[in-house]
Amino acid sequence: MNYKAWVAKSAKDPMVLETVDLGPLGAEDVEVAVEHCGLCHSDLSVLNNEWGISQYPAILGHEVVGRVTAVGTNAKALKAGQRVGIGWYSNSCMHCRQCLSGSHHLCAQAQPTIVGHRGGFATHIRAHWAWAFPLPDKLNFSEAGPLLCGGITVFSPLVMYAKPTDRVGIIGIGGLGHMALKFAAAYGCDVTAFTSSESKFDEAKSFGATHVVSSRDSAAITKLAGSLDLLISTVNVQLDWGAMIGALAPNGRLNVVGAVVEPIPVSAFALILQQRSVSGSPTGSPVGIATMLDFAARHSITPQTEHFPLSKINEAFARLESGKARYRIVLNADF
Ligand SMILES: [Zn+2]
Ligand SMILES: [Zn+2]
């Protein structure tokens, strides 16, 4: 088998097309021929080694949609020809307390798809069968990639912490945030979008926001004091966190999914008196991802995307880095 992949040789290097040797297929693994793969901000962070965890040569891409081409001897549930998705993780130990509890995404041995593992900007990708998710027939396959990382990242805190009757705020209307608006609106919530970009106000409403507020306007945020049951923050920049936490209702929660590098200042009194919480969450469990895909298919939720052929991968990364992508980039395999 002639496998090819776009390979980053070292940090910040442009990716080059190479032939790769995937070796023998693991007994519990499946192999998937890649059709589409979303480009997530984490791909850029790993390419540039922003988190200090990257391993080179690196094959990035962790929002994969494709068809199963081979099934390991002990793999379950999947068969050749089936269309599946693969996200941020592609394996976990399957025997620790977290895996046995169904929280495989909290497993200490969980294998990120693009760190020490070959990702989806390639002809083929492999994953443990439990981390390759059959896609519902109703889903638009060419647009579904971004659901598998960005989508589940915002869907998880919504179903963990919000009720359909709640008022929910989404901070940052980009790749993650625009999907969060769609999920929260379909879930039944009253949705407030916070964005620094006035040019996104109308689009935020078209994605499902009932209200739109500038995330840089402390006075406008302060007017919302005590009103929101859940805030999901997707941004990686500093904000007026005091005003944001003040916008939470009693028992409200600020849940962080955006990797802001600077610490978030939290006043103990702001939490204690109104019984508020500040939390974070990563991607989701296998069952959480399957539930999200089912919900997205039922409510016709698709990310808003720009498509590039995979052969233009370096241009696509530059587009993402420029911050101009609206709202999520998907690469189409064209080997
Ligand atoms: Zn991602
Ligand atoms: Zn485990």
Structure, explained:
With 335 residues, the chain is of the alpha/beta class. 25% of the residues lie in helices and 27% in strands. It has eleven helices and 17 strands. The chain has helices at 41-47, 97-100, 141-144, 150-161, 175-187, 201-207, 218-222, 241-246, 268-272, 286-298, 313-321, and strands at 3-7, 16-20, 29-39, 64-71, 83-86, 89-91, 111-112, 124-128, 133-134, 167-171, 190-195, 211-214, 228-233, 248-256, 277-280, 305-309, 328-332. The strands form four sheets. Strands 3, 4, 5, 8, 9, 16 and 17 form a seven-stranded mixed β-sheet that branches. It has a six-stranded parallel β-sheet with strand order 12-11-10-13-14-15. Strand 13 (228-233), helix 8 and strand 14 form a beta-alpha-beta unit. Helix 4 (150-161) runs parallel beside helix 5. The longest helix has 13 residues, at 175-187. The radius of gyration is 20 Å and the shape is globular. It binds zinc ion (2 copies). Residues 92-93, 96, 98-99, 107, 109 line the site of one zinc ion.
Short description:
With 335 residues, this protein is of the alpha/beta class. Helix content is 25%, strand content 27%.
The overall pLDDT average reads 97
| Sheet with most strands | 7 strands, mixed
The secondary-structure element order is EEEHEEEHEEEHHEHEHEHEHEHEHEHE
Cα distance spanning the termini: 14 Å
User: How many extended strands?
Assistant: 17
Which stretches are poorly predicted, pLDDT < 50 over at least 5 residues?
Answer: none
Class inferred from helices and paired strands: alpha/beta
Helix proportion? 25-40%
Q: Output the radius of gyration.
A: 20 Å
User: What compounds sit in this structure?
Assistant: zinc ion
- The percentage of residues in β strands lies in 25-35%
Number of H/I helices? 11
* Shape, principal axes of CA atoms: globular
